[in-house]
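Structure tokens please, single chain.
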Amino acid sequence: MRLQDSYVACRLCPRNCGVPRFQGSVPGYCGETGELRIAAASLHRGEEPPVTGMGGSGTIFITGCSLGCVFCQNYRISREGAGAVVSGDEFARICLVLEDRGAENINIVTGSHAIPAIIMGIRLARSRGLSLPVFWNSSAYESPGALSLLEDTVDVYLPDLKTLDSKLSRRFFNAPDYPEHAERAIFRMLEVRGKPRYAPARGTDGGEDRVLVSGVIIRHLALPDHLESTREVLRWFAEKGRGRALFSLMTQYTPVMATSPGGPPGRCIDEAEYERVLRWLEEFEIEDGFYQELVHDTDWLPDFEQENPFSSELSLPVWHWKQGFI
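Here you go.
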């Protein structure tokens, strides 16, 4: 897949919708044309410790999404289209301002449908002095051809492994083929980046203040009433990912979208479920990684209509789609 041909008949994600997105007015399944749209950029302090570091992760939230999770926490950008068109020059400036303000990395969030524009923006930023590692924060619903385009650009992959159950992926992620594509994509990420590699966080001499500069963190969000899916993912990691990647267990599920019979869970993980998944971490001897504390709080939920979509404790805004640089 050539970079300049990617939008002609779009095959960037497994949807293979074939839409000629390069024309600028025809959206693909992801809801986006060939124009790059961004909702926000910030110094984010709510990621895993070696991602956040001391200065925060330089997150850039891309508008649109090729998946279709029925409980998406970022639904304002994945479904409702919050975001503004940016040129390659503006994207490069955002990266450079994030670095200037202390970011540990450039963390691209849900950019799978915009890979060509993002690569060109990163290349431009590099030519102007960007020295930070680039993180690819995605659903893992990605095609081999699209991932091959990223190999010279991305240093750290942060893929989700949402489920290995095709019935669950059809019901909750609008993609019955998610498990096969996600597994294949993660294997490719592991081949490209291998074991984690660290460097001292910015402004430190190292020690425990280390940040990830190469590698893979596989993330999984546990769903209430569907813990067997989590157990299957943990088993998969123990057999196929341990020693090659870090694992991050998330328990922050919140029913942010309206629920209906047969729809997504209408409650958070409870204490008994939380204890169960922690026991499974021990059972499968998964020690290289992270797990969230169980906190039933919605302060972390983003509102991309606001200048700072997150709480001030979690995020320091740098750029917003309604007003530009902050």
